[in-house]
Design a protein that fits this description.
By secondary structure, the protein is α/β, with parallel strands linked by helices. It has helices at 79-86, 109-118, 126-129, 136-146, 153-163, 180-192, 210-225, 238-244, 262-267, 272-279, 282-288; strands at residues 33-41, 54-63, 68-72, 94-99, 102-103, 119-122, 198-202, 230-235, 247-252, 255-261. Strand 9 (247-252) and strand 10 form a beta hairpin. Helix 4 packs parallel to helix 6 (180-192), helix 5 packs across helix 6 (180-192) and helix 6 (180-192) runs parallel beside helix 7 (210-225). The longest helix has 16 residues, at 210-225. The chain is globular, with a radius of gyration of 19 Å.
Length: 289
């Protein structure tokens, strides 16, 4: 099989319950989000100008609205680099990222704004990514200004807060005055406020206790199932992938080494990296033994 493995997402995950409904201001869904034959190499460094290190090699992913894919791998496997490229924050050494028929154009500010409105990021550590000097209202209004989103910003902020079930009474508070779970919900609301079609969530429940993990994962699942967003869930935990995603891609040393329906990947792992991740989840290992 070629090193370039196509990953087509499938709807999956547990039903999180009631729909929040997409706001009427959502732009039309632009089509699939595709990473095509992406590679990334760090430039040579040091006096001897050693050859560049490859962080990613020939990665192909296809995400669709209303479906979820888990990108699973150990630390250092290249997950964060791939996410940065798909957010148009890092330029690949080769390959392209496209939204529908339109490739990302790094040199066009207008095209980048359109792309970044459609593809938003949920960080691993909201406490570190949310400006502690800003109120919740300011944090949610900032991306609307940066992306030049038209319309009633106050209404868009209210809609985003409603979708993540955050009380409007928190609008004047700052991150330091919120709990960890509230900060994570604000981070999701910040990603939703511009009405994107896709969320790239990087270890969104890492560091949260079990009840908060369940709450945040249920929220993300609801956004996929009921609101029709496409989700790329980056995680090192196969148990989270099994709960949330119909499709799983395993990344190891910069290559996708295994992909397919999540239940199939877990039931019959074909790669040592997948087997090692499965062994790190004893409950999951017993389920699929």
């Amino acid at each position: 099989m070629s090193d370039a493995l196509r990953v087509t997402t499938r709807t999956g995950g547990t039903n999180a319950g009631g729909s929040t409904g997409r706001p009427p201001t959502c732009p039309p869904t632009p089509g699939d989000l595709t990473a095509d034959s992406l590679s990334f190499a760090y430039p040579p460094r040091g006096f001897l100008r050693k050859s560049p290190g490859h962080a990613l090699q020939d990665i192909t992913l296809r995400l669709s609205p209303g479906s979820s894919t888990a990108l699973v791998g150990r630390s250092g496997s290249g997950k964060s680099t791939l996410v940065r490229i798909m957010l148009a924050l890092t330029k690949p050494s080769s390959g392209t990222v496209s939204l529908g028929p339109r490739p990302v154009q790094p040199g066009s500010a207008r095209a980048l704004r359109w792309y970044r409105r459609s593809v938003q990021y949920v960080p691993q550590n909201p406490a570190g990514s949310l400006d502690p000097r800003m109120t919740v209202a300011q944090l949610l209004t900032e991306p609307l200004r940066q992306l030049r989103v038209e319309g009633n910003h106050r209404m868009l902020v209210a809609q985003a807060l409603e979708r993540v079930e955050v009380a409007a009474a928190l609008l004047d508070r700052r991150p330091g005055e919120l709990s960890g779970g509230q900060n994570q919900r604000v981070a999701v609301a910040r990603a939703l406020v511009a009405s994107p079609s896709y969320l790239l969530a990087d270890e969104p429940v890492s560091g949260l206790d079990l009840p908060l993990r369940d709450t945040v994962l249920a929220l993300l699942d609801s956004l996929v199932r009921h609101d029709g967003l496409g989700l790329l869930l980056v995680t090192h935990d196969l148990a989270t992938a099994a709960r949330m995603c119909g499709t799983t891609a395993v990344l190891d040393d910069g290559r996708i080494v295994e992909h397919g329906p999540t239940h199939q990947v877990l039931k019959d792992p074909r790669n040592e990296a997948t087997a090692a991740l499965l062994e790190a989840s004893p409950d999951l290992l017993r389920t699929y033994a």
